[in-house]
Design brief:
The chain is of the alpha+beta class. Helices cover 23% and strands 27% of the residues.
């Protein structure tokens, strides 16, 4: 998130290093302590199996976001 001074380009770069193409990365929503990235026609399973990826040189936890029930 913003507290970690992450930018959209940092997230795109990290995901591309994991094998995704920039065209497969959709909307990036950065909040104070969490960020959301939508994937377009990409399988998230390989990323989720790692549980952490390096972003700006630090391991960051990744998980699948779930919609909250309203």
């Amino acid at each position: 998130g913003r507290k970690q001074k992450l930018r959209a380009g940092d997230l795109v770069g990290a995901l591309c290093q994991q094998g995704l193409q920039a065209e497969q990365i959709g909307v990036i929503d950065i909040h104070e302590t969490i960020s959301f990235v939508s994937l377009i026609q990409a399988d998230p399973k390989p990323l989720l199996e790692q549980q952490r990826i390096l972003i700006k040189g630090k391991p960051r936890k990744i998980e699948l976001a779930h919609a909250s029930a309203k």
